[in-house]
Write a structure and sequence with these properties.
By secondary structure, this protein is α/β, with parallel strands linked by helices. Helices cover about 20% and strands about 35% of the residues. The chain has six helices and 35 strands. Strand 4 and strand 5 (about 160-170) form a beta hairpin. It starts with a helix and ends with a strand.
């Protein structure tokens, strides 16, 4: 073997350690990658666990809100007891607490959610400046007086993770419906029939005649939710509701509607329900009288023109002549009777004594306002709400549309020069003893369209004109629901008697309590 070959072999033997070095480096890199992958996987596990705890904490908070809503459904006076309510069961903690401000040790009582690791606690959130719910003054300490709502906070926790939900409750309200009636028959005053004869439901044997059946006819559209304590009669294919979200409900047993003998069937776009609970109407609006501030409690015939954040008031009995006043701070105006002693006349000539609580109103308001009267509220022109304002019109008797006439001869007449045309009302209307009606609706030339954007609740159905798809007298109807009324009330708007409470808002509080 030559010296050159021996030298080459020695060089190859000298490089034999290089392969081992490369192999060791590859093993090292692989180990580092494995460690990184393991750490990353462990991090994902921690993140997933935290996310799961947040979800379970929210579910626990929901369980707390459901717990309170369940007991409120069993007893609609449950909220008035504050924390003095029964425990869920023997030996179980009562999770209803006064509010905690979040500082210091947590004093709240928690209850486990069965079958989970979660717990919940419920706090009563006071209103009107009260620090706690006072069982001797529950209405003052808990109820938002203007909106008729109260709130609770439910907090859920799992392994130290917390989430809080605030639930706002309100009674089932006339404001939940575009159209509400107690009796589906013409107002007895408009039909010259003793009211007691017609103040009963059709299913109870209301006599027709002399009481007058009113039908929903083809072309009629109820563009929002509907409730009647009675049943409905249809002719052709009237449309009820805008979508399945609109509840179309009657208190009569199924089927709840009948055909007026002219064929067709109703088009229920909304969700139809027969056998719904009766929503009893208050006997009067006297509660509003007690709420109105002295400066906004008027006696006798009163005229109010709404002008943005103020109103122009005329009341001869009280010496007010186009007097400018700011809107009331609590949003309530009330007109009470003086010397009156008269009732509504079907042939209306506007000559009631000045002591009668007739409130004439028109104009536009950018402040939320409820107008109440011991007698009637008469709309003399457009009544508009601007911005975030919501308006309420609550007469004891009639909500009326002003329609002066001349040359009257029986059921014929001529519209007076100042008879308003194409009236628009942005308000929730509640006629406690009678109905929404157009004065002298049965005579004169057509007046255009009566547009109500809001809600109409009335004891009886009131006529606004005569004719069918083409009107002969009075107004065509265009009634549309203001969906804001599901969540916002005109100030101190009246509710049905003994109505159930329901959740109208359900929001998460961040950060949780």
């Amino acid at each position: 073997m030559t010296d050159c070959v021996r030298a080459a072999r020695r060089r190859l033997r000298d490089e034999s350690g290089f392969s081992m070095f490369v192999l060791l480096m590859l093993l090292l890199v692989g180990s580092l990658l494995s460690i990184a992958a393991y750490d990353a996987a462990n991090g994902d596990v921690a993140l997933s666990g935290g996310d799961q705890d947040r979800k379970q904490a929210y579910s626990a908070a929901e369980a707390g809100a459901d717990y309170y809503a369940f007991h409120l459904a069993q007893d609609n006076a449950y909220w008035t007891n504050c924390t003095n309510v029964p425990a869920p069961g023997p030996g179980q903690p009562n999770p209803i607490n006064q509010p905690w401000n979040g500082s210091g040790n947590d004093p709240r009582i928690w209850r486990s959610v069965p079958g989970t690791e979660g717990e919940y606690t419920v706090e009563l959130l006071p209103a009107n400046g009260y620090a706690t719910c006072d069982p001797t003054k529950p209405e003052l300490s808990m109820l938002n007086q203007g909106q008729g709502t109260f709130q609770i906070r439910s907090t859920g926790r799992v392994r130290g993770t917390k989430r809080s939900i605030v639930s706002t409750f309100r009674r089932t309200s006339f404001l939940d419906f575009l159209y509400f009636t107690d009796y589906e028959t013409m107002d007895p005053v408009a039909n010259a029939v003793p009211s007691g004869q017609c103040a009963q439901y059709r299913r109870a044997g209301r006599p027709e005649p002399p009481c007058s059946t009113i039908v929903f006819a083809s072309g009629d559209k109820i563009e929002g939710p509907l409730h009647t304590n009675d049943d409905i009669v249809t002719c052709g294919s009237p449309t009820f509701g805008r979508s399945a979200a609109d509840s179309i409900e009657v208190s009569a047993p199924a089927p709840g509607w009948s055909n007026g003998g002219c064929g067709g069937a109703p088009n229920f776009v909304g969700t139809w329900k027969a056998g719904a609970p009766v929503l009893a109407m208050p006997a009067s609006n006297s509660a509003l009288k007690g709420i109105a501030a002295p400066a906004y409690l008027f006696t006798g015939t009163t005229t109010i023109q709404l002008q943005g954040s103020k109103m122009i008031v005329t009341n001869a009995t009280m010496g007010l002549n186009a007097t400018s006043m700011p809107m009331p701070s609590n949003g309530v105006v009330y007109v009470q009777n003086g010397a009156c002693g008269t009732s509504y006349s079907l042939y209306q000539n506007y000559n009631d004594p000045p002591g009668c609580a007739n409130l004439f109103v028109s104009g536009s308001s950018d402040k939320s306002l409820t107008l109440g009267s011991e007698n009637d509220v008469i709309v003399t022109g457009d009544v508009r709400a601007t911005g975030t304002a919501v308006l309420g019109i609550v007469p004891n008797n009639f909500a009326r549309i002003y329609h002066p006439v001349t040359n009257r001869n029986g059921n014929t007449c001529t519209n007076a020069a100042n008879s308003p045309r194409d009236i628009t009302i942005d308000a929730a209307i509640l006629s406690l003893q009678h109905s929404l009606i157009v004065d002298n609706y049965f005579c004169g030339a057509p007046l255009g369209t009566l547009t109500v954007t809001g809600a109409i609740a009335q004891r009886f159905r009131g006529p606004v004109g005569t004719g069918g798809a083409v009107i002969a007298t009075g107004y065509l109807k265009h009634y549309a629901y203001n969906d804001r009324l599901k969540f916002v009330n005109p100030p101190y708007f009246l509710s049905p008697l003994q109505a159930a409470w329901k959740v109208i808002r359900f929001t998460e509080q961040v950060p949780p309590r």
